[in-house]
Amino acid sequence: MGASHSAGTNKLAITAMSHVVHFTRDELLALQKEFLRLAKTNTDNENTINRKQFHDALHIVKVEESDKELLDRLFTMFDDTGDGQINFKEFVCGISTILRGTLEEKLTFSFHMFDVDNSGKVSPEEMKSVLHSMNNTVSYFGDEKADESKIDTLVKEVFAEFDANHDGELSFAEYMHAVAAHPTLVSFVTHGTEGGAGGAGGK
């Protein structure tokens, strides 16, 4: 009876989750099964995954990523509680935005990805660091890997045009204007964070 009640509670929770993320109930149940299979190998908590397991977890949804700095940044963003562990809800909320988020959701996600020090603003150094990491794993500028100097030039152009108050950083509002207006950054936001993902099927 207890096991049946637990299973029923889980299905209700999954159904509720399907209304706030971009996955169907059946997709979430399938993802949860694979996530928990991986989590069982976590010696700290068999219901969560740690930083070392994160790369394998991304494989579940066919996201291929190999740059260590980028993986660390994504893990930190997914880990809402900051305890060094990611539970299923945290994983799904993060991956939902990356794979199927609206443009607004991806814009917001990318801002927080660039805002490495969580200051609420993005510096040129932060933007260059993340873009260089992404360029190491997959090209966001066409089929060929971008020349490193082109990334630096891109960042300079963005800040010169959209740093309205000339404080050397982009606020969220300034960033939203910049990324929405710049074709290369729009490509990054809408496709770049997918890392060549095949997704988990349409909703």
TrEMBL record:
The keyword Repeat applies. Belongs to the recoverin family. Keywords: Calcium, Lipoprotein, Metal-binding, Myristate, Repeat. Gene3D superfamilies: EF-hand. CDD domains: EFh. Residues 66-101, 102-137, 150-185 form the EF-hand domain. This is EF-hand domain-containing protein. It comes from the Eukaryota. GO terms for molecular function: calcium ion binding.
